[in-house]
Amino acid sequence: MGVCFWDFAKPFEVSVARLNARGYRIDWIVVDGRSGSEQNGGQIADAVRCLDLEEGEPLVLLGHSKGAVDILEFLVSYPDLAAG
To answer: CA-to-CA distance for 35 and 58, rounded, in angstroms?
Structure first.
């Protein structure tokens, strides 16, 4: 349901605003909540490939609900991207 109401209820929205105010860069990776973790892990990998990270810049992935499982799938299936 999150995709249906994305404009009205983004997970962690209040925290994101606070982190942005402190200079942290926040990017959203929207995946289909009804798709399998293998597909969503691939979408996460595609998004990570497109990030313009500075050398040594940390990447923190935070998932909401099934997003945590999707991130674990990404970590296992794409260890080269996960290692940075």
So the answer is: 28
CA distances from 77 to 19, 20, 33, 59 (A): 29, 30, 19, 17
Residue type, 83: A
24 membership: H or E segment, kind and range: none
Q: What is the pLDDT of residues 12-66, one digit of tens each?
A: 778 888 988 998 888 888 888 789 999 999 999 999 999 988 888 888 898 888 8
Tokens encoding 5: 């109401």
Start-end of H helices in the chain: 13-21, 37-50, 67-77, 79-82
Which residues, 6+ apart, have CB-to-CB distance to 65 below 8 Å? 2, 11, 33
Task: Please give the structure tokens belonging to residue 6.
Answer: 């994305």
